[in-house]
Amino acid sequence: MDRRTFAGLAAAAAAGALLPPAAFAQAAPKARNVVLVHGLFADGSSWSEVIPRLQAAGLNVASVQNPLTTLPDAVDAALHEIGRQKGPTVLAGHSFSGMIVTEAGVHPNVSALVYVAARAPDAGEDYTALAKKFPTPPASAGIVFEGDEGRLSEQAFVRDFAGDLPETRARSLFAVQWPFRKELLAGKTAHAAWRSKPSWYAVSADDRTIDPDLQRFMAKRMGARTIEVKASHVSLISQPETIANLILEAAGATTTGGAL
Protein backbone atom coordinates (compact mmCIF):
# COMPACT_ATOMS: atom_id res chain seq x y z
CA MET A 1 0.00 0.00 0.00
CA ASP A 2 1.46 3.39 -0.98
CA ARG A 3 1.30 6.57 1.09
CA ARG A 4 -1.52 8.13 -0.97
CA THR A 5 -3.77 5.08 -0.57
CA PHE A 6 -2.98 4.91 3.12
CA ALA A 7 -3.84 8.59 3.58
CA GLY A 8 -7.22 8.03 1.94
CA LEU A 9 -7.99 5.08 4.17
CA ALA A 10 -6.89 7.05 7.21
CA ALA A 11 -9.23 9.88 6.30
CA ALA A 12 -12.10 7.41 6.00
CA ALA A 13 -11.29 6.10 9.45
CA ALA A 14 -11.23 9.57 10.95
CA ALA A 15 -14.97 9.50 11.58
CA GLY A 16 -14.37 6.83 14.20
CA ALA A 17 -12.09 9.22 16.04
CA LEU A 18 -15.13 11.32 16.94
CA LEU A 19 -16.30 8.59 19.30
CA PRO A 20 -14.75 8.03 22.73
CA PRO A 21 -12.17 5.19 22.63
CA ALA A 22 -14.00 3.21 25.32
CA ALA A 23 -16.94 2.79 22.95
CA PHE A 24 -14.87 0.29 20.99
CA ALA A 25 -13.56 -1.77 23.90
CA GLN A 26 -13.79 -5.53 23.37
CA ALA A 27 -15.50 -5.05 19.97
CA ALA A 28 -12.86 -6.67 17.78
CA PRO A 29 -13.82 -9.41 15.31
CA LYS A 30 -12.04 -12.73 15.52
CA ALA A 31 -8.67 -12.43 13.82
CA ARG A 32 -6.69 -14.93 11.76
CA ASN A 33 -3.40 -13.05 11.74
CA VAL A 34 -1.03 -11.18 14.01
CA VAL A 35 1.59 -8.64 12.92
CA LEU A 36 4.22 -7.82 15.55
CA VAL A 37 6.47 -4.75 15.59
CA HIS A 38 9.58 -4.23 17.72
CA GLY A 39 10.90 -1.04 19.29
CA LEU A 40 14.28 0.54 19.92
CA PHE A 41 17.33 -1.44 21.10
CA ALA A 42 15.92 -4.62 19.52
CA ASP A 43 14.97 -6.39 16.31
CA GLY A 44 12.14 -8.65 15.16
CA SER A 45 13.51 -11.58 17.15
CA SER A 46 12.47 -9.86 20.39
CA TRP A 47 9.08 -11.53 19.83
CA SER A 48 10.63 -15.01 19.54
CA GLU A 49 9.17 -16.23 22.85
CA VAL A 50 5.67 -15.01 21.95
CA ILE A 51 5.49 -16.18 18.33
CA PRO A 52 5.35 -19.97 18.89
CA ARG A 53 2.56 -19.52 21.44
CA LEU A 54 0.47 -17.60 18.92
CA GLN A 55 1.24 -20.11 16.18
CA ALA A 56 0.20 -22.97 18.48
CA ALA A 57 -3.21 -21.30 18.74
CA GLY A 58 -3.55 -21.45 14.95
CA LEU A 59 -2.73 -17.83 14.08
CA ASN A 60 -0.60 -16.66 11.17
CA VAL A 61 2.21 -14.53 12.63
CA ALA A 62 4.64 -12.07 11.06
CA SER A 63 7.30 -10.04 12.89
CA VAL A 64 8.25 -6.83 11.10
CA GLN A 65 11.88 -5.77 10.89
CA ASN A 66 11.50 -2.12 11.84
CA PRO A 67 14.20 -0.13 9.96
CA LEU A 68 14.56 2.35 12.87
CA THR A 69 15.43 5.15 10.43
CA THR A 70 12.42 7.50 10.28
CA LEU A 71 8.84 7.13 11.46
CA PRO A 72 7.47 7.12 7.86
CA ASP A 73 9.95 4.37 6.94
CA ALA A 74 8.92 2.34 9.97
CA VAL A 75 5.22 2.80 9.26
CA ASP A 76 5.73 1.79 5.62
CA ALA A 77 7.46 -1.43 6.70
CA ALA A 78 4.52 -2.29 8.95
CA LEU A 79 1.93 -1.37 6.32
CA HIS A 80 3.64 -3.64 3.81
CA GLU A 81 3.30 -6.60 6.16
CA ILE A 82 -0.25 -5.71 7.21
CA GLY A 83 -1.26 -5.49 3.54
CA ARG A 84 -0.03 -9.06 2.96
CA GLN A 85 -2.47 -10.48 5.50
CA LYS A 86 -5.78 -12.04 4.49
CA GLY A 87 -8.60 -11.09 6.83
CA PRO A 88 -8.72 -9.49 10.28
CA THR A 89 -5.30 -8.88 11.79
CA VAL A 90 -4.15 -7.94 15.28
CA LEU A 91 -1.36 -5.35 15.23
CA ALA A 92 0.87 -5.51 18.31
CA GLY A 93 3.80 -3.27 19.19
CA HIS A 94 6.41 -3.04 21.92
CA SER A 95 7.98 0.14 23.25
CA PHE A 96 8.67 2.77 20.55
CA SER A 97 6.69 0.77 17.99
CA GLY A 98 3.51 1.89 19.71
CA MET A 99 4.01 4.93 17.47
CA ILE A 100 3.84 2.62 14.47
CA VAL A 101 0.79 0.76 15.80
CA THR A 102 -0.95 4.08 16.40
CA GLU A 103 -0.29 5.28 12.86
CA ALA A 104 -0.49 2.09 10.77
CA GLY A 105 -3.35 0.64 12.81
CA VAL A 106 -5.95 2.54 10.76
CA HIS A 107 -5.32 0.07 7.91
CA PRO A 108 -8.61 -1.77 7.19
CA ASN A 109 -7.03 -5.19 7.78
CA VAL A 110 -6.31 -4.26 11.40
CA SER A 111 -9.04 -5.49 13.74
CA ALA A 112 -7.41 -4.75 17.10
CA LEU A 113 -4.36 -3.10 18.61
CA VAL A 114 -2.10 -4.40 21.35
CA TYR A 115 0.42 -2.17 23.13
CA VAL A 116 3.17 -3.81 25.20
CA ALA A 117 4.85 -1.19 27.43
CA ALA A 118 4.48 1.00 24.38
CA ARG A 119 4.10 4.59 23.31
CA ALA A 120 0.51 5.51 22.46
CA PRO A 121 0.37 9.12 21.29
CA ASP A 122 -2.69 10.94 20.07
CA ALA A 123 -2.77 12.28 16.51
CA GLY A 124 -0.19 15.03 16.13
CA GLU A 125 0.88 14.80 19.75
CA ASP A 126 4.44 15.54 20.80
CA TYR A 127 5.26 12.34 22.68
CA THR A 128 8.46 13.78 24.12
CA ALA A 129 6.51 16.66 25.68
CA LEU A 130 3.96 14.20 27.07
CA ALA A 131 6.69 12.00 28.57
CA LYS A 132 8.26 15.01 30.31
CA LYS A 133 5.14 15.28 32.47
CA PHE A 134 6.24 12.04 34.15
CA PRO A 135 9.50 11.03 35.87
CA THR A 136 12.43 10.50 33.52
CA PRO A 137 13.10 6.73 33.35
CA PRO A 138 16.65 5.60 34.22
CA ALA A 139 17.29 4.05 30.79
CA SER A 140 17.21 7.49 29.14
CA ALA A 141 20.61 8.32 30.62
CA GLY A 142 22.08 5.22 29.00
CA ILE A 143 21.45 6.16 25.37
CA VAL A 144 24.75 6.68 23.57
CA PHE A 145 25.04 8.36 20.16
CA GLU A 146 27.75 7.81 17.58
CA GLY A 147 27.02 10.46 15.00
CA ASP A 148 23.41 9.94 13.93
CA GLU A 149 23.09 6.46 15.42
CA GLY A 150 21.84 5.76 18.92
CA ARG A 151 22.20 2.66 21.08
CA LEU A 152 21.69 1.74 24.71
CA SER A 153 24.85 1.15 26.72
CA GLU A 154 25.43 -2.36 27.99
CA GLN A 155 25.00 -1.32 31.63
CA ALA A 156 21.71 0.44 30.94
CA PHE A 157 20.51 -2.41 28.74
CA VAL A 158 21.11 -5.05 31.39
CA ARG A 159 19.92 -2.98 34.35
CA ASP A 160 17.20 -0.68 32.97
CA PHE A 161 15.90 -2.30 29.78
CA ALA A 162 15.98 -6.01 30.56
CA GLY A 163 16.37 -5.98 34.32
CA ASP A 164 14.29 -9.08 35.06
CA LEU A 165 16.20 -11.35 32.67
CA PRO A 166 19.22 -13.42 33.65
CA GLU A 167 22.32 -11.33 32.98
CA THR A 168 23.66 -13.75 30.36
CA ARG A 169 20.36 -13.53 28.45
CA ALA A 170 20.24 -9.73 28.73
CA ARG A 171 23.84 -9.42 27.49
CA SER A 172 23.13 -11.63 24.49
CA LEU A 173 20.18 -9.41 23.58
CA PHE A 174 22.37 -6.34 24.01
CA ALA A 175 24.80 -7.79 21.47
CA VAL A 176 22.14 -7.90 18.74
CA GLN A 177 20.44 -4.56 19.39
CA TRP A 178 19.95 -2.55 16.20
CA PRO A 179 20.90 1.16 16.18
CA PHE A 180 18.26 3.82 15.58
CA ARG A 181 18.57 7.16 13.81
CA LYS A 182 18.01 10.45 15.65
CA GLU A 183 15.42 11.45 13.06
CA LEU A 184 13.22 8.57 14.16
CA LEU A 185 12.61 10.23 17.53
CA ALA A 186 11.37 13.43 15.88
CA GLY A 187 8.42 11.77 14.14
CA LYS A 188 4.80 12.48 15.08
CA THR A 189 1.79 10.34 14.26
CA ALA A 190 -0.81 11.90 11.96
CA HIS A 191 -3.51 9.46 13.10
CA ALA A 192 -4.51 7.71 16.31
CA ALA A 193 -5.81 4.27 15.42
CA TRP A 194 -6.79 3.61 19.04
CA ARG A 195 -9.61 6.14 18.62
CA SER A 196 -11.32 3.86 16.12
CA LYS A 197 -9.99 0.37 16.90
CA PRO A 198 -10.40 -1.74 20.07
CA SER A 199 -7.18 -1.71 22.05
CA TRP A 200 -5.34 -3.74 24.67
CA TYR A 201 -2.41 -2.57 26.81
CA ALA A 202 0.13 -4.44 28.94
CA VAL A 203 1.70 -2.12 31.53
CA SER A 204 5.14 -3.17 32.78
CA ALA A 205 4.94 -2.32 36.49
CA ASP A 206 8.73 -2.43 37.03
CA ASP A 207 9.64 -0.59 33.83
CA ARG A 208 12.78 1.57 33.87
CA THR A 209 12.56 2.51 30.16
CA ILE A 210 9.03 4.00 29.89
CA ASP A 211 7.60 5.25 33.17
CA PRO A 212 4.81 2.90 34.35
CA ASP A 213 2.53 5.82 35.26
CA LEU A 214 2.91 7.19 31.73
CA GLN A 215 1.90 3.77 30.44
CA ARG A 216 -1.13 3.75 32.73
CA PHE A 217 -2.11 7.24 31.58
CA MET A 218 -1.97 6.29 27.90
CA ALA A 219 -3.85 3.02 28.46
CA LYS A 220 -6.61 4.78 30.38
CA ARG A 221 -6.87 7.57 27.82
CA MET A 222 -7.43 5.10 24.99
CA GLY A 223 -9.97 3.08 26.96
CA ALA A 224 -7.84 -0.02 26.51
CA ARG A 225 -8.38 -3.37 28.15
CA THR A 226 -5.38 -3.11 30.47
CA ILE A 227 -3.31 -5.59 32.43
CA GLU A 228 -0.41 -4.98 34.81
CA VAL A 229 2.61 -7.23 34.43
CA LYS A 230 5.27 -7.32 37.15
CA ALA A 231 8.08 -7.11 34.64
CA SER A 232 10.82 -4.95 33.21
CA HIS A 233 10.41 -3.20 29.87
CA VAL A 234 10.82 -6.53 28.06
CA SER A 235 7.76 -8.37 29.37
CA LEU A 236 7.39 -9.97 25.93
CA ILE A 237 10.64 -11.85 26.72
CA SER A 238 10.42 -12.33 30.49
CA GLN A 239 6.70 -13.18 30.58
CA PRO A 240 5.82 -14.30 27.03
CA GLU A 241 2.88 -16.45 28.14
CA THR A 242 1.10 -13.45 29.61
CA ILE A 243 1.78 -11.26 26.58
CA ALA A 244 0.77 -14.02 24.16
CA ASN A 245 -2.49 -14.48 26.03
CA LEU A 246 -3.28 -10.78 25.80
CA ILE A 247 -2.73 -10.88 22.03
CA LEU A 248 -4.84 -14.02 21.77
CA GLU A 249 -7.62 -12.25 23.66
CA ALA A 250 -7.47 -9.36 21.18
CA ALA A 251 -7.66 -11.93 18.37
CA GLY A 252 -10.68 -13.64 19.92
CA ALA A 253 -8.69 -16.86 20.22
CA THR A 254 -8.31 -19.39 23.03
CA THR A 255 -5.56 -18.48 25.48
CA THR A 256 -2.66 -20.79 26.25
CA GLY A 257 -3.45 -21.14 29.93
CA GLY A 258 -1.20 -18.45 31.39
CA ALA A 259 -2.61 -15.82 33.73
CA LEU A 260 -3.91 -12.52 32.39
What features would you describe in this structure?
The chain has 260 residues and is α/β, with parallel strands linked by helices. The chain has one domain (3-132, 185-251): Rossmann fold (3-Layer(aba) Sandwich), CATH 3.40.50. It is built from 11 helices and 9 strands. The protein has helices at residues 3-13, 51-56, 71-84, 98-104, 127-131, 154-161, 167-175, 182-185, 212-221, 235-238, 240-251, and strands spanning 33-37, 60-64, 89-94, 110-116, 143-146, 149-152, 180-181, 199-204, 225-229. The strands form 2 sheets. Strands 2-1-3-4-8-9 form a 6-stranded parallel sheet, with helices on both faces. Helix 3 packs across helix 4 (98-104). It is globular, with a radius of gyration of 17 Å. It starts with a helix and ends in a 9-residue tail after the last helix. The model is unreliable at 11-20 (pLDDT under 50).
Compact summary:
35% of the residues lie in helices and 17% in strands. It has 260 residues and is of the alpha/beta class. The strands form two sheets. A six-stranded parallel beta sheet has the order 2-1-3-4-8-9, sandwiched between helices.
**What is the H/E order?**
HEHEHEHEHEEHHEHEHEHH
> Helicity range of the residues?
25-40%
Percent of residues in β-strands: 15-25%
> Would you identify the CATH architecture?
3-Layer(aba) Sandwich
Order of strands across the main sheet? 2-1-3-4-8-9
CATH homologous superfamily descriptor: Alpha/Beta hydrolase fold, catalytic domain
Provide the low-confidence segments as ranges. Answer: 11-20
How far is the N terminus from the C terminus? 35 Å
CATH topology heading:
Rossmann fold
The average pLDDT is 90
Shape: globular
Query: Strand count, sense and closure of the main sheet?
Result: 6 strands, parallel
Number of E-type strands: 9
- Please identify the top-level CATH class: Alpha Beta
Q: What is the rounded Rg? A: 17 Å
The tally of helices reads: 11
Going by helix content, strand content and strand pairing, the class is alpha/beta
Total domains, how many?
1
